[in-house]
Amino acid sequence: MVGEKKQVNILIVEDDEHINNIIYDVLTKENFACTQAYSGTEGKINLTHQMYELIILDLMLPGLSGEAFMKYLRLELNYETPVIVLSAKEKLDHKLQLFELGADDYVTKPFAVEELLARVHVQLKRNTNTKHALYEYKDLLLDSENISVYIKNHELNLTRQEFKILELLMKNPTRVFTKQDLYELAWNETYLGEDKTLTVHISNIRNKIKHYTDEDYIDTVWGIGFRLST
Questions:
Q1: Mean pLDDT for each 10-residue chunk of the chain (230 residues)?
Q2: What's the pLDDT at 39?
Q3: Per its UniProt record, what InterPro entries does this chain match (predicted)?
């Protein structure tokens, strides 16, 4: 079982290049791995290539707005990734609306980088504590913090990609993942249409589970991809 510490990835979605670069510089000095996006649409694309522990999101974005990005993240992807919103809008009703959409914190522009950094650490610490919650499905128990999976008290010996695939499925039990989604999120590489590698990994996961139970855990959605069995 692979036991390396998971790297903290942060997505910065801010169309002002100067502000985006300031945030990037501050966070990379703290040893965070940051991805820069300059529009809501670009940020949305980034979500298909990488899983993030935190998102810093401007609202006034070209293309897809910050509010629309939030709706996509929470309602379509069903991701619980913490989001710190950046905005010049200060009205209370607007802030309340953002919290209702699923924002976790709010920083008003202009802001001090020290304040933003402190809020980043608070959200990551809070999310780490909640993320240590175990994910359960039938007889499977997945611990994302310790990178381990158990079935009927037996630990499954999974590769890194196998674990990542199963983690994605268990964290999003109602979502059908396309082959491209699973490949790019698990391998962090561009999907070129050759799905043999992914199919072999899915088969390996199924076989390792089948060693302890006859129940189905992963369904093939023909022509689309995979999901947890219903």
A1: 62 96 95 95 88 92 91 85 85 71 87 92 76 78 84 89 92 89 85 84 95 94 91
A2: 96
A3: CheY-like_superfamily, OmpR/PhoB-type_DNA-bd, Sig_transdc_resp-reg_receiver, WalR-like, WH-like_DNA-bd_sf
Q: What is the largest CA-CA distance in the chain?
A: 58
Q: What is the pLDDT of residue 40?
A: 94
What lies within 8 Å, CB to CB, of 129 at 6+ separation is: none
**The pLDDT of residue 131:** 53
Neighbour tally for 166: CB within 10 Å? 26
> Using CA of residue 154, residue 158, residue 163, residue 169, what is the dihedral sign?
negative
How, if at all, do strands 83-87 and 54-58 pair?
parallel
Output the pLDDT for position 172: 87
C-alpha dihedral sign at 105, 111, 115, 117: positive
CA distances from 40 to 94, 97, 158, 173, 227 (A): 19, 18, 35, 26, 27
- CATH class for the region spanning 9-131: alpha beta
Chain region(s) in the chain for CATH 3.40.50.2300: 9-131
Task: Record the pTM.
Answer: 0.59
Looking at the structure, give the CATH architecture of the domain made up of residues 135-228.
Orthogonal Bundle (1.10)
Instruction: Report CA-CA distances (Å) from 191 to 116, 181, 198.
Output: 35, 8, 10
Q: Are strands 177-178 and 218-221 parallel, antiparallel or unpaired?
A: unpaired
